[in-house]
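Workshop exercise sheet. Pairs work together: one partner reads the sequence aloud, the other fills in the structure field after running the prediction. Swap roles for the next sheet.
Pair: D.N. / O.F.
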Amino acid sequence: MSQPTRKRRWFTICAITASAALVAIPAGAAPGSRGTPFGARALAQLAAERGQSVGAVSPKAKAEDDGGDDGNEADEIAEGADQYAEARTSPGIVAPGAYGAAWTSLANLSSTGGSWRNITNLPYNSDDARYRDYDSNSSGGSGNVTGRMAAMAADDDGYVYAGSAGGGVWRSRSGGGHWQPISDKLPAQSTGALALDGAGRLWLGTGEATTNADAYLGSGVYVLSNPRHGTFSTRSRVGGDELESTTIHELRFGGGKVWAATSEGVWSHSTKTLKGAWKLEFAPNPAYLPGGSLANDASAAYKNIANDIAIDPKNPSKVVLAVGWRSGDDYNGFYTKDSSGTWTRITSGLGDLPADADNVGNVTFARSADGSRYYAIDQSPEQLNTNPDSGLEGIYVSKSGAPTGPWTKIADYKGLAADGSALTSSGYMPGVQAWYNQFLTVDPANAEHVYAGLEEVYETKDGGTNWSTVGPYWNFGFPCWSIDPTKQTGDCSPTTHSDQHGVAIGSYHGKSFVYVGNDGGVYKRPLAGSQDASGHATDWTSLNDGTIDTLQYYSVGVGKDLTYGGVSVTGGLQDNGQSILRSNDKVMGSNFGGDGGDTLTDPANGCNIAEEYVYLSIQVTQNCAVNDGSWVTDPSKITSYNVAPADNATGEARFIAPITADMKNSSTWIAGGRHIWVQTHGYAIRSGDEWTSVYDLGAGRTATAVAASGGKVYAAWCGPCNNQGFARGISVGNADGTGWHDITLPSTGADGTVPNRYLAGFAVDPKNADHVYLAVNGFSRHWTEGPGAGVGHVFESTDGGTTWKDISKNLPDVPTDSAVVTPNGGLAVATDLGVVYRAPGRTTWKRVGNLPAVAVLQLKLSPDGKTLYAATHGRGIYTIGVHDLR
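Structure field:
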C-alpha cells in the first residue's frame, strides 16, 4: 500500500516592507473513493504546485519592471505569503517606528483587573497516537513541538538560548528544557539573530529575517551582560534607533566590532561600548533607505538586504559581505573593500562560489574555530525562478580559511537528496525553500565536521565529501515507518521538525551537543551522535517540554468537553497543524496537520470541529478526529471530511480565509472567498457541494472578515488587496441570499469614517444584530504613506452597517485583528501588541493584563461567556476571566 497522503504547508516567497510584518513577492487520495482530502499538501502536490509557479513574476516585481500589475492571483505560492502582511501595510508603505510608538502608547494605558493565564504551556505532541486520522501528520516523527525558532546560542556550561519568531528569547540552564523567557520587557519579540561574544555576553538582533509572511520587524540590537541570570531590558539597546524597524539576519564579531547584516544594509558598532550610533558600512542602494530620496518607493524594502558577513580570522580588516534579495536584483553579490577602502563587488576569483547576481541570493557563512576553513550555503535566485526542484545553488568550502576563497562546491541538492533525504520527489527536493531555511555551523573541535540546515538537517564528518541526512523532513515514505500507534514512528527514530533556521553547539556536563531551531521549536543530539544504516540520526531529543510556549496561533475554538467535563480548546497554528487540548489532558495533541487557519468549534460539543487549512480548505470532524490509523487498511474508518467550498478550488480566497457560525444558530456557517458561502448542516456537513453562494463580491475581491447573527450576515472584503490600487468594502445581506448590497464607504478615509485599510474583523452585539463593531488593521495616516489611510481602528454601527462611527479614542495606533462583545456589553479588541478593553458605558480603553509585545490574532468566549480566550501568534493561548475586565 502506498504511503498515506500527508499535508504540509508551503511557505511562499515574500519580501520585506517598512512595517512590522513582511510582504510577499515571488515561497494523493486515500484508499477507496474518498478522493482528494481537505487541504492535501502531500509532497507530490507540492511538487506540482512548485512546478506550475516556477518563472512566475510577483505583482510588485512586475510593477517595478513595466509599471503594470499582472497579479498572478492564480499563483498560490506567491499569494499566500503576501496576505498576512498586506493587512498591516496596505494601502501604502508604513514608516519606521510605528510599532515602537504603539508599544509606548499601550504601556501608558491603565490596566483592567485580572491576569492572563497561559493554557498551552504544556507539551504539544505532534505524534499523539490518539489523533492518527487521515489529515493528521501524527507518526511523522517530530514529537513535542512549539513555535518557530529563528536563532540559537549555547555555551559550554549547559546554558542554551532560543530566539523565537514571535515569542521572544528563552533560556535553559540545563542543556535544554526547563525554559524561562528573558526578553518580555522588550518592545519587539521577533528574533533575527542570537550570538555569544568572547566575553560571554548574549547579543540579540530583533526582527526575524526569514523574509517570511508572518515575520515581524524589530527594534534594534540588545546585549545581556550576564545572560545566565539576567533579562533583556530597553536600557541594554546598542546604539540609537538606527536599526529600529529592520530585520537582522546575522550578528558577527571581529576587530573589536559587532557587524549586523540587516534589511537596510550592513552596520557595525564597537563591542566595547553600547553608546554611540551604529555606523552604516554598506548599503548598495542608499537612496532607498529611510530619509533617502526613494525611501517611499514601493520597492524600497527590497533594495538593501544583507544576509551575512564573513570576517577573515587571520586579518579582521578583510571582510566579505553577502548582499542580495533572494528573488533576484542587480545588486546581489559578494562585496569587499578595495585598496581605496571602497566596498566593491567581487567579480572573480571565488572559485566555484558564484559571483554573478543571478546566482547569489540568501547566503549563510560559518568558519571553523581554528581558522582553517570557511563554509557557505548559497541560494540562487535563478534556480528559485527556473528550477522546480530546488533553489539551492550549493554548499561550499574555502580550504584556505579566507572568505575570499577560492571556494569549492561540496554539496548540491541532487547529492543531498541521495544521502538519505525524505525529499526525493521531483518538484520538492533539498533546498526548495533555501530562501527560508538555512543554518550552518562547524564543530569547534573538528574543522571538517559540519552541520547544515535546509528543510532537513545534514551532517558531514569529512569536510563535505560525504553527507548524511541526520534530520529528515519526516519519516513518511521510509521503509521503517508505520502508523501503528503502538510504535511512535514505526521502527524509525524520532527526527526533528522540518524547516531549519538556527543552530548552536554547546556542552552540558562535559558532553557536547548540537542544538537546532526550526518551525517546530528546539531539538538536540550529541555532537558526535549515532546514525542508522540510512544515515538518519537515532538520538534526537525534543526540547519542547511545555515550559517554552512560542506557538503561533491564527485562531482558537472552545467547546464543552462532553467526555471529560470542562471545555476542549483547539486552534490553528503556523506549520504545526491544529492543536487540541481536552479538559483532562496533560499533553496537547495534534489532530490535523499542515498550517492551521481559522477554526469553528461547537460550543455545545468540543469534538465538533471545523478546521481550515489554507484558502478555505475546510475539514470537519465530529469526534475530535480521534483515530488509531486503521483507516490505512479500512477507508471507512476515516472520521474527518473535506468540505471546502468552491472558492478553494479556484484559488479565490485569502491564505487564512474567514469562516464563522451564526451566533443564534450554530448549524448555519458562513465562509468568505470571492463569494459569501452559506451551509446549514452544521458539523454534519460531508461535502463541499453543500455550500451555497449567497453573494458574489466580484472579480478580484475576496473576503477578509465575516460575521452573522440571526441570519444577518456582514462581510468585509479587499480587492486589490496590496498597495497597488488597494480597495476595501463591506457587504451586508441575509444567510438565505436575500437583501445583499454593498455599503457605501468613502474612499478617502476621511476623519470619522472607515479608513481605506484592511478590515480585519466584526463583533456583533448578541442582543441586536444591527449593532456591530469593526476592527481595522494597519496604521493610521500618521505612519502610512497611502491614499485614504485615515485614522482609527475600531468603528461602531447601530444601523446594520449603513453608517459607522470611530470609537478608537485613546486606543493605540496599532493594527487590530479581532473583537468580541462580552456578555455585559463590554468590547474586547485584539491587536498586534496585546488586548484592549472598553467597559460598558465607557468611551476609553484599558490594557488587558500584561502580555509581552505579541500579536493577538483572535478572541473567543467560552461557551458560558465567563472566560475570554486569546490566540497569540507567538506565545500560545491565554485566558482571563470576563468578570475581571473592569
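Discussion prompt: Residues 76-89 form the longest helix (14 residues). What would you look at next?
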